[in-house]
Amino acid sequence: MRNLLKFLLFVVLVSLGISLLYDYRMKHGGLTTIERAPEKYTLASSPPVDRKEVGTLAEFDRERRTLVANVVSSVVSVKTSKKIPVRRQYALDPFEYFFRGPRSQFRNPNEEALVQNSLGSGVIVTNEGHIITNNHVVDQVDDIEVQLADGRTKKARLIGSDSDVDLAVLKIEEPGVKPLKLGDSDAVQAGDMVLAVGNPFGFEETVTQGIISSKGRKNRRDGFGDFLQTDAAINPGNSGGPLVNLAGEVIGINTAIISRTGGSQGLGFAIPSNTVRVALESLLKKGRILRGYLGVLSTQRNPATETDGVVVDDIVSNSPASDAHLQKGDVIRKFNGHEVKSFSDLRSLVAQTELNKKIDLEILRDGKSLNVSTEIREQPPDYQTTRVIPRPGQPGQPVPNQPPQAGPNPATPDEDNNESPFSSVRVGELTPELAKQLDLPSGVRGVVVLAAETPDLQRGDVIEEIDQQPVTSVAEFNKISGNLSNDNPHVVSVCRHRVRSFLVLRPR
Fold first, then answer.
1. 13-46, pLDDT tens digit by residue?
2. Active-site residue (options: 74, 118, 136, 490)
3. What stretches of 235-386 show up as alpha helix (H) in DSSP?
4. How is residue 307 annotated by DSSP?
5. In whole angstroms, what is the distance from residue 296 CA to residue 374 CA?
6. Could you tell me which of 24, 91, 190, 481 has the fewest CB atoms within 10 Å of its CB?
7. Quick check: is 239 catalytic?
8. Catalytic annotation on 226?
């Protein structure tokens, strides 16, 4: 014992001596190994360009700062969580299997809950605290929380949502919030400057700038033709955030990107604000979206060869179109005074029309201009499979692969034959050994891609989610992919070489 005390005393004395020596050398500069004269330097004292020579650009900067400052405070980050039951093997926790505590005796020893967190964006649009976001941001989640621009977090209540339009309305109880006005998306033109604001990859209050790249493409056979396209950088997490014009008005809700990397490649898409306004008011008043329809079926034609207008191919029985006595071969030129240049134009005009409202149609029949009237009514539940007025000599049977109808985002003739982007994807179970070989981060759950003909997916990728639906097994993958529509693109969450990203797979 005495020897131990002597040893400890020796260690203390040595440590004290080293400390005093270090302190002495620091005070007297003894630790300086290289002594040299100070470097002479002169910093630039004036900018290379006189601000007076770029006064217009400087003013543009000031105006843009004003725009951003007045917009950002109305944009929120949407944070959701969902509990997912996960089955596990006894062998993973043998001690709990044999020595169960008070909690485990009331729980299935094969199951545990995995909390899945997701991020999105939203924008405040009413003085009462209503927030617009995407349906896919808040679909089938257990908890919704929004973070305001000042950092405060609030619990949000889901008022209503619609998967077809991909919009949802939330509400927070917070007096004094500042809403943004919904602008007129019909007035937007390609080339207009816009800002996208949101929460990409968790970086809240991110602002990116771009232009409207395109709108209302006539030749698109998918829903992207109805969106506003922009080159403003939009990334995962931007979903539900606003696309604003120079007046700070919301002209679109960012909803999708086309990307081979999972990040922005300059192809972003937003739901037009006029569509958003109709959906918002319907969800607030009725709790659901009331869809109007005209009941016209038409074939998409090449815009380069067809005249302006929509050629009527068929008419749905007992529809507003049949009430107006429209006939096969009629060309719809105007809808309530608005020019109709394509079926996409007609579909948008119908979707934005108040239900049970009288509308006027200008049509061309046998080379003569006619005016007819009808009322836009609510779309029946069986609209996509409804009977058309039979042609002479044909029975009135449901029409397979029918042409697109004047309602929200109907199918086109050949879209029913589209091939699912997952039809060529072969997957296997993700085992702990395989996860180790692939060098995956801890907590990754999903299925491993064994083969895929699509260039977006690679062998060794782990598919974790499809359209925000967790994929935990091959059986779950087959079930989810088998129930997906072949007409629309699908968002896939993928882990590749320790990097998580989102891919958009389109029908083949």
1. 878 878 777 776 666 655 555 678 899 999 999 9
2. 136
3. 273-286, 320-323, 343-351
4. P
5. 13
6. 91
7. yes
8. no
Catalytic residue from among 77, 121, 161, 239: 239
Instruction: Give the angle subtended at the CA of 237 by the CAs of 458 and 66, to the nearest 5°.
Output: 140
Partners of 381 in the beta sheet?
Answer: none
Structure confidence by residue, pLDDT tens digits, 399-435: 333 334 444 333 333 333 456 778 888 899 988 888 8
Helices (H) and strands (E) in the chain, counts: 9, 27
Angstrom distance (rounded) from CA 359 to CA 101? 70
Task: Give dist(CA 216, CA 71) in Å, integer.
Answer: 26
Q: Which of 181-185, 247-251, 436-440, 474-478 has the lowest mean pLDDT?
A: 436-440
Q: How far apart are CA 298 and CA 310, in angstroms?
A: 7
Asked if residues 363 and 370 have their Cβ atoms less than 8 Å apart, the reply is yes
Q: How many residues does the chain have?
A: 508
CA angle centred on 91, ends 88 and 94, rounded to 5°: 110
Q: How far apart are CA 245 and CA 500, in angstroms?
A: 32
Q: Which of 74, 118, 161, 166 is catalytic?
A: 166
d(CA 496, CA 340): 46
* Burial (CB count within 10 angstroms: exposed 0-12, middle 13-18, buried 19+), residue 393: exposed
Burial class (CB in 10 A: 0-12, 13-18, 19+), 92: exposed
